[in-house]
Design goal:
Blueprint: E1 4-10, H1 22-42, E2 49-50, H2 55-64, H3 69-77, E3 81-82, H4 97-114, E4 120-123, H5 133-139, E5 144-147, E6 160-164, E7 170-175, H6 190-207, E8 212-217, H7 228-238, E9 242-246, H8 249-259, E10 265-267, H9 287-313, H10 320-334, H11 336-340, H12 345-374, E11 384-389, E12 395-405, E13 411-414, E14 422-429, H13 431-436, E15 454-465, E16 469-476, E17 487-489, E18 493-495, E19 499-503, E20 509-513, E21 518-530, E22 547-548, E23 553-561, E24 565-576, H14 580-584, E25 590-601, E26 607-615, E27 620-627, E28 634-639, E29 642-647, E30 669-670, E31 674-678, E32 683-688, E33 693-697, E34 703-710, E35 742-753, H15 757-760, H16 762-769, E36 775-778, E37 801-802, E38 812-818, E39 825-830, E40 838-839, E41 848-849, E42 862-863, E43 868-873
Length: 875
């Protein structure tokens, strides 16, 4: 019988922050990596050391020890110090698909530049694995997968299996069954060592289906075990039934591949928390940080990069380095603990600050590039605006924009002289501030200075914005228009071409779908209840009190009507418990106000919601629900480059306590931007700009519940209803910031459809919802400190322009950007349908490349279910 080959993997799992800050982690990282380098150089038999697969750690070290770059390059080139493919150990469920792709893109590039990037998808601690990750890994040349959390023994009886992604891509997978820290505590006393090996390795042998076992030697921020070669030699002396070797994940898989056969296949996302906690409701922890993340991710890939591509096509520099800095700030926050919010308050303040930096850099990068274009368009009016379309097809509809406007009456016109309907939602007088900052670089040039200047938020109806391009519109001060401020009233009903919305007697909304002649009741019901959980898990109190907006007092109802938009504003007052003690005693001593603005834009199939909550109570959760009357066994949501159908209730809920699961297998799920309940003829979808968490509830599982926020008191707590036993994280760390006291905002949208899911194009509607066209105002009176002074430029650009990259009809564009290593443009599309395939026109064939932007030799004629495809088009 062949001996067991024990692959001893020395490593350190290095959280860049957690209950400690990244500053503390980095200071200790420098000490740690210095010792690793010295140890590997001093001991040739210390063959490998795995540095958590995060290239960012190499960057962090070299920032302080640049003199060691050559030493690191040699060790990495020799595959002794193992880094990559990740930049940071990212989450895979609530982080966007483009963030994950760029994380691998930057992570592998940094590792390759240093000598080698590990071709293993190493994920030791992330809270679940995305169902489309096998395809993403393969696109980066990664065909092996090594992980801990996400699969239980009801599906997997051994450590080795084939993981099949949602698109059908398969890869060899190895689970680290007892955690990445399993072999961290090796006794040095020889008398204890034989028993230790028999117990520890014996347990791994029982799980393995081949003679190869993966034995990790390390833990969180673990120091290098300098005498590991001597210990491994001792293992071999004491244990003649096994062979022990210091190995790496790559050498382990090389041996494993020689022995595996008839492996079981596990398909889809891995989110089972039987043996290792998944913390599924971490999706809504620290809603303020989640919302910041989601807004910036959407802005980067949906707006900024497409506009930068337009700017680059017109001769401007493409800012790769600035974008890299922004994305890396986002990757630091995408690490599983950081985006999870399961940190100390001090650490979460660092996370929030990085979001501020990323947002500031991104918005100013957009502003600059819109300006570089706008200042080269002939200025025909004192108030001139360039409207950019970041989508790869023409777009018409109502858009929101900010503008400095005069006190005079004016019309808005496009380049053809067509009048554009608009409304002014709000305005603030900034005359003194704006005009006092005006600077005349060229005093010889006559400049129009308005008597009054207001900063306004406007809605404007635009037509046929050029695909991946821009159009120019103007204020015509010589033409008067009808009153553009919306008419206010106390009516409780609004409507547009598609919907009629009425506030019902029970404080919910009744929505009538005009085209389908179908009425939906009990819409927009707010549900408040207690949260006895911590930063890792939502958990209801054992004595809960559930309160809904049906019990609320309506403070006010107002409506506004304009030519392009109608809104209904409702203010509720809910009497709620102040804390968990009051909730257990069924006391309600505090008021929570919920103000909701429901908007119907002209000729738009979305119902938009903007919710403002005055939160002054502790440890609770607020959701909003939409009753669909569609009893379904499955929900449909979007995940990484694909829709996914999930059961509305997991059968494991019936057995989890008897089987002693680590946490309850609740059906609280993640999404990228939407969730839908539907049958073959109609459906309902909810889209979000905020928290990406939902649950299907109701006796018939016919109601969509969108989480708005949850609050809690501590990083970790013990013996929760949904998570028995020990605390996750540190139970002594109080997190008062996580109570989110103050105003909380949430935005989301609803759409109703009378078709199959595929025919409804929900993913396209969600993409448009999250891709508001940005606008740049070119007015000479603004020139000054307010915007940084600009000089007159030669007017070389047309008033309208389209980049005209080929469009793949039916597919969703995920990215438009300049290629990293050439002058070409990258476009990325994915199939958003459950069943429908997309024919790929001939113009795309031969232009295929991988997610890593290397050329692909596989010509694609069809974009199948859950497939993503990237193309390279020359400038």
């Amino acid at each position: 019988m062949a001996k067991t080959k024990v692959h001893v993997i020395p490593h350190s799992h290095w959280d860049r922050e957690w209950y400690f800050t990244s500053s503390r982690s980095t200071i200790y990282l420098v000490k740690h990596l210095k010792e690793v380098i010295e140890t590997l150089e001093a001991k040739e038999d210390y063959h490998f050391y795995l540095m958590d697969a995060q290239s960012s750690l190499i960057e962090d070290y070299l920032r302080y020890c640049p003199e060691d770059k050559t030493r690191l390059e040699k060790l990495i080139t020799d595959k002794r110090l193992i880094t990559g493919p990740w930049y940071t150990q990212t989450d895979q469920l609530v982080i966007s698909q483009e963030s994950i792709v760029r994380n691998l893109l930057y992570g592998t590039r940094i590792a390759y530049e240093m000598g080698h990037s590990m071709a293993v998808g190493y994920v030791p601690d992330a809270f679940g694995q995305g169902g489309n990750m096998p395809q993403i890994y393969k696109e980066f040349g990664i065909s092996k997968f090594l992980f801990w959390r996400g699969v239980a023994d009801n599906r997997l009886k051994q450590t080795e299996f084939i993981w099949r992604g949602d698109d059908g891509t398969e890869m060899l997978a190895e689970q680290i069954p007892f955690g990445y820290y399993y072999g961290a505590n090796i006794p040095e006393n020889e008398a204890e060592l034989k028993k230790y090996l028999d117990e520890q390795i014996g347990a791994l042998e029982k799980k393995a289906s081949t003679p190869n076992v993966y034995f990790p030697n390390g833990l969180d921020q673990a120091p290098v075990r300098k005498n590991l070669p001597e210990l491994v030699a001792k293992f071999n002396e004491l244990d003649s039934t096994r062979e022990y070797h210091i190995a790496s994940p790559e050498t382990f898989f090389a041996d494993l591949e020689q022995d595996v056969m008839d492996l079981p296949v596990i398909a889809g996302e891995l989110t089972e928390g039987k043996h290792s906690r998944l913390h599924k409701s971490i999706f809504s922890t620290r809603a303020d940080l989640k919302q910041a993340n989601n807004e910036i991710e959407n802005f980067l890939s949906n707006v900024l990069e497409p506009v930068l591509s337009v700017s680059y096509s017109l001769g401007n520099r493409y800012p790769h380095n600035e974008l890299a800095e922004i994305w890396k700030l986002m990757f630091e926050n995408a690490a599983h603990d950081s985006i999870g919010g399961c940190n100390s308050d001090t650490t979460n303040r660092d996370v929030k600050h990085r979001y501020k930096l990323a947002s500031d850099l991104a918005t100013n990068l957009l502003d600059l590039n819109m300006r570089l274009i706008s200042e080269k368009i002939e200025q025909k009016q004192a108030f001139q605006f360039t409207i950019f379309n970041p989508l790869p097809y023409e777009k018409s509809g109502v858009i929101k924009m900010s503008a400095y406007i005069p006190d005079d009456n004016f019309t808005m016109e496009d380049t053809q002289g067509n009048t554009l309907p608009y409304t002014i939602l709000e305005q603030t007088d900034l005359t003194e501030y704006v005009l006092n900052q005006h600077i005349d670089l060229n005093p010889s040039k006559a400049v129009y200075l308005p008597k009054k200047v207001f900063l306004a938020t406007m809605l404007v109806e635009v037509n046929n914005l050029p695909a991946l391009g821009y159009d120019t519109v103007y204020f015509n001060l010589e033409k008067e228009t009808t009153e553009q401020e919306p008419k206010q009233s106390t009516a409780s009903k609004i409507e547009n071409e598609f919907y009629e919305i009425q506030l019902a007697d029970n404080n919910s909304l009744t929505i009538h779908d005009k085209k389908a002649n179908r009425t939906y009741t009990d819409q927009m019901v707010f549900v408040e209840n207690g949260d006895d959980g911590d930063s890792y898990n939502y958990s209801p109190p054992r004595k809960d009190l559930v309160i809904t907006s049906k019990e609320a007092v309506v403070n006010s109802v107002d409506s506004s009507v304009s030519s392009v938009n109608q809104t209904l504003t409702i203010s509720f007052k809910l009497n709620v418990p102040y804390n968990l003690e009051e909730r257990a005693n069924r006391e309600k001593t505090k008021e929570m106000t919920i103000k909701t603005i429901i908007s119907l834009r002209k000729n738009e199939e979305l119902i938009r919601f903007d919710v403002q909550i005055a939160n002054q109570v502790l440890s609770h959760r607020l959701c909003v629900t939409f009753a669909t009357e569609i009893a379904s066994k499955f929900s449909t949501a979007d995940q990484l480059f694909a829709p996914i159908k999930r059961p509305v209730r997991l059968p494991e809920m019936d057995v989890w306590e008897a089987e002693e699961w680590q946490e309850a297998p609740i059906s609280i799920e993640a999404m990228q931007s939407f969730v839908s309940l539907h049958d073959e003829v109609h459906g309902v979808a909810v889209m979000t700009e905020g928290v990406r968490e939902y649950e299907i509830i109701g006796d018939n599982y016919d109601t969509i519940s969108l989480t708005l926020f949850r609050t809690f008191s501590h990083m970790g707590k013990t013996d929760l209803l949904y998570r028995p036993g020990r605390a996750s994280g540190e139970s002594i760390v109080a997190t008062p910031d996580a109570q989110l006291l103050g105003e909380i905002n949430a935005t989301f949208a609803l759409t109703l459809f009378e078709s199959s899911f595929d025919e409804a194009n929900i993913a396209k509607k969600a993409k448009e919802y999250l891709s508001n066209p940005p606008v740049y105002q070119m007015s000479d009176f603004l020139n000054g400190r307010l915007i940084y002074v600009y000089r007159d430029e030669e007017k070389t650009l047309d008033a309208t322009y389209s980049l005209k990259l080929p469009m793949l009809d039916g597919a969703i564009v995920s990215a438009v950007k300049k290629a990293e290593d050439s002058e070409a443009f990258i476009t990325r599309f994915f199939n958003p349908y459950l069943q429908k395939e997309i024919a790929i026109p001939e113009i795309f064939q031969g232009k295929e490349c991988h997610l890593d932007e290397n050329k692909s030799n596989e010509k694609q004629t069809t974009l199948k279910h859950a497939k993503v495809q990237t193309y390279l088009f020359e400038k």
